[in-house]
Specification:
Oligomer: single chain
Number of helices: 29
Number of domains: 3
Helix content: 55-70%
CATH topology of the largest domain: Multidrug efflux transporter AcrB transmembrane fold
Structural class: alpha+beta
CATH class of the largest domain: Mainly Alpha
Strand order of the largest sheet: 2-3-1-4
CATH superfamily of the largest domain: Multidrug efflux transporter AcrB transmembrane domain
Strand content: 5-15%
Distance between the termini: 14 Å
Shape: elongated
Number of strands: 8
Largest sheet: 4 strands, antiparallel
Length: about 800
Amino acid sequence: MNQAARVFASMVRRAPLVLVAVTVCLAAGLAFGIPRLKFRTGQDTLLDPSSKISLDNARFQRQFGGDPMLILFEAQNGADIGQLFTAGNRDVMNRLANGIEATGGFKTVLSPITVLQFEQVQIQQQMVQQPVKLASDQQAAEAAARADSAARGESTAQQDAAAGAARQRVTDEFNAKYGADANRFLSVGDQSLDNPKYVQFLIFGADGKPRPDLAGIFPDGRHALMVARLNGNLSIDQESRTAAQVKDGMSAYRFDGMTALASGSPLLIKEINDKMRSALFVMAGLAVGIMVVVLSSIFRARWRLLSLPAVLVGCVAAFGLMGFLNLPLTMVTISGLPILIGLGVDFAIQVHSRIEEETNATDSAEAGLERTFLRLGPALALAGAAACIGFIVLHLSRVPMVRDFGSMLAVGAVIVFVSSIVLMSGTLFVRERKRIGPKSAPHARFEVERLVGGITARTVGKLLPIALAGALIATVGLFVSRRIPTQMDPEKFVPSNSSVLVDLHRVRDVAGTTSEINLLVEAHNGKHVTDQDVLDWMIGLEESQRAKHPELRQSNSVASFTKSVTGAAPTTEAANATLAAAPAPLVDAVVNPDRTSADITFAISDAADLAQRKTITQDIISSSSPPPGVDVAPAGIAVVGTETVDAISSNRDLMSLVAVGAILILLLAVYRNPVKAVAPLLPVILALGASATFLYFAGVEYSPLTSISGPLIIAMGTEFNILLMSRYFEERANGLDPRHAMSTASLRIGRAIAASGLTVMGGFAVLALSDFPLLDNFGKVTALNIGLSLLSTLILLPPLLVWADEEHRFVALPGDVIAE
């Protein structure tokens, strides 16, 4: 490793400007890969495409479509929903439905007109069929009563009386159920939608409320819904564009006495997607501004801002290379920009600080450069390797976008590491070689050395109480970390005053719910979902689960749809007749064309969180017991959401454990001393535990961005510890006793570590200024984690190293990180 350091120093000495120019040119060339970066936003970023849930959901969406968009119609000025069906409004509504279909992004569009026209056909048939059924029921009741009377040995007169009573009972039941409607039907006059009285009859029952079978479209007397279901298996970008096209086009449709409001989860996802893309890049710019302030305030060096342009060149190269490598940007990976900026500034500050120190000590730019890389280079390379290990461990995640995040950070860290070191060393060497005059370093506005030295002075010699407190905090943190929930409700990712969220809540208040649980029912080996045993099973499952789970508001399937139309238990004959007569949007919502697949949809209260939805879904599946030859599986966006939460949370602790283990193996291989290998990791474990403890007791939830923060803390925290420990070894090898060596090491490298830690913290803390909760959570939690890593390095590592050294647990060697 020393030989490599010498070779690099020699290259910089011989041609510093050439190295800088080549690095900048390579970055410029790689920048052409940035336009190749693609945002991947489909389901395959959330779940492994080969998983059963992904495959089931993909089949479901191919047949039944994706998320619904809802258009809410509201009557104004005290009118009821009948106002929607004036001739002019019907024409506008038809044009709206046709316009939505013309986008090509929707599988079905279910208009209130379509539903009302189907209701019209059904009621007209009922008015014809009900008298026939009444006569049949009367005859059957008479015959049964007469037979029972005869069986009891009663006289003919008594048998006639029993038959008459049975006939009257059937008549009374019929009149109670249908009489009021029949009288209303006879009084409405013209049976067309141009007749307001007839429209009122179609929508409202005798009790003045919308008919129960229309509840999904007419939730109350003043509102109606148009349901436009997107094509299945669209990416978030495709859904967003299609939903926005509908939303933006609503202004072209004007209704008389009505308002129309487009809403739905696709618009919410669009807002999250758009805000994530724009806000993170804006926040990255603000983060650079914060770093300027921090560096100007506490970093004691000439050209103290030099690290920023060097790192930005590295970030351009890193993201360009990602484009050429086809590494996608996702909801998680776009957060890598501030991480790479912070990491690069960290590397650059260390090089900057050490070059100035060594140049001042030797009064020679050449000697200072060589001593920098002989002493700092191995430790910096080891710290960078440890950081990359922490990033690569993210590949253990079951979530594809987290694995992509790990790849992006590992590739980016290497590029930023190399480019920042080359640019910093080359530029500073040219400056130091030409510098004339006193070599004293400028003063910082805030002497951070005093703070670092004060912490070190107060902790050295007090290992026992610090270790006990640290062990307690780490134990509590590791225990409660599994209890910190991961927030995956998209509504929690946007500001509560978001217009999209306000509109969604408005629709929810009217409709009762905007969420659903879907079940994919598939028949095999010649069976059909309209077979009698399948229909009996469906209707039984729906009714039993609605009774068992109050969160389930209503349900829809080919069985319950048939029952709502016929008013009787579904039969194969009735189901086939209903499907043949029903409009295509209603049919396509419950069965596929060849009747081998069906959708059972449960509308679920939005008050039920993802954990409750998962529990209810699992209970439905476990108690479903479908007939032979029939399979049932959960599907839909709710299932994808709950499974993604599980996938993110399930091996969160495992990734941290593997990261610690892998870095421990690396340190053992390099140091060949267990104490030296373990020492840099103990403060990291303390930081992990302290972070989890604080978040748990503060009631802070993880988000998709922060739930995987463990390996990031380990990666960046280990770097701090390796650099401080390496400098301590160097000072010991220079002949200082353990305590003086630690004091000197803290003084000389502490300011660089503190500066780099605070710049990284500042870069993330600026995200907390966003009014976007997803970014706010990410900024606060990550800044907290970096701060705790820095504190644990300064509080635990100094007394630990001094104690181990005084107890002869290791031998300190000159600046080399290789063990004895």
